[in-house]
Amino acid sequence: MPNLRGAACVGSPGLFDPRDPSEDPADTAYRHNAARELCRTCPALEECRDWADSQPDQTPAVTGARTRETAA
Ligand code: SF4
């Protein structure tokens, strides 16, 4: 695991989760935008992106201000 000291997502995991099939896509877009904004304030952003890029499982959660479908 990378050193994610000071990670801005601590305490807000629900913003970052992939879309559940029962979730309205507009709601997913809204919370993922909020998650990406939080990431942009995160002191661990670079380390987080490096770690995410090294992972074979690229689920569409928000990580490092990005989702699999959307680059920051
Ligand atoms: S960049 Fe985003 S997902 Fe990564 S540690 Fe920071 S807040 Fe969490």
Domain module count: 1
Q: What is the global morphology?
A: globular
Oligomer: single chain
| Structural class by SSE content | mainly alpha
Q: Key features?
A:
72 residues, mainly alpha, globular, binds iron/sulfur cluster
Characterise the protein shown here.
12% of the residues are buried. Helix content is 33%, strand content 0%. The chain has one domain. The protein is built from two helices and no strands. The longest helix is centred in the middle third of the chain and has 15 residues. With 72 residues, the chain is an all-alpha fold. It binds iron/sulfur cluster. Iron/sulfur cluster binds next to helix 1 and helix 2.
Kindly summarize this structure in a few lines.
By secondary structure, the chain is an all-alpha fold. It is built from two helices and no strands. The protein binds iron/sulfur cluster (SF4).
Give a topology summary:
Elements: H1 25-39, H2 45-53
